[in-house]
Design goal:
alpha+beta; 202 residues; two-stranded antiparallel sheet; 6 helices; seven-stranded antiparallel sheet; globular
Length: 202
Amino acid sequence: MVSRASPAPLPPPRKEGDLSLEAVLSCRRSVREYLARPVSREQIGQLLWAACGVTAVEPGLEMRAAPSAGALYPLEIYVVTPEGVFHYIPRRHELQPLASGDLRPALLRAALEQESIGQAPAVFVITAIYSRTTRKYGRRGAERYVHMEAGHVAQNLLLQATALGLGGVVIGAFEDEAVKNILGLPEAETPLYLIPVGYPRP
C-alpha cells in the first residue's frame, strides 16, 4: 500500500561510540542469520547517518559521511522494515514513508530466496541515479565512480552496524526490475546493493 505520510525526523546521530575504529574493523564479519528482535528507530537513524548522512555544511558544499566524486551524491538509500518502505533524506536526517506493510517477503523473492533478507528486521537498499555523476564525468563516472561510492556507503553502514552490536551482509544477487517495482523506484534509479541488518544469531 502506498503511504502518504509526511517525512518524519530521525533521532540525532551520536558522534561518539563505545568502540574504537580499530576494534570495529577487527570485529566486522558478514552476518547472515539474525535473531527475531527488532532494531530501533534510533539505530536505523544512526546506520543511515553513518552510511551517507550530512557531517558538515559550508557555503555551496554539503559534506557527507561517505566521499563522492565532485560532491554529486548519485546514491539514494532506502530501508525496508516490517512497517514499510522508507527513503532516507540526508539533508534533513529524516525518513520519507513510501509504502506501508511488510514487503520483506517480496524482497526475499526478488533476492533469489536468500534467507538473510527474510530474517533481517531491516533491509537497506542502495540505489544509483547515474545521471548525477555522468553529467560531469561521463561514462567513466557511471562505470567507476558511482560504484566506488556504493562501496564506501556500504562499508560505512556495516562498520556502524558492528559498533552497535548488529551485523549485516552485502547482497548483489537480485532481480533489478523486481526490486525497483517493490520499492516503486523511478525509471532512472538503479538498485545496487541489498544490505540486511539485525542482531546476529549466536
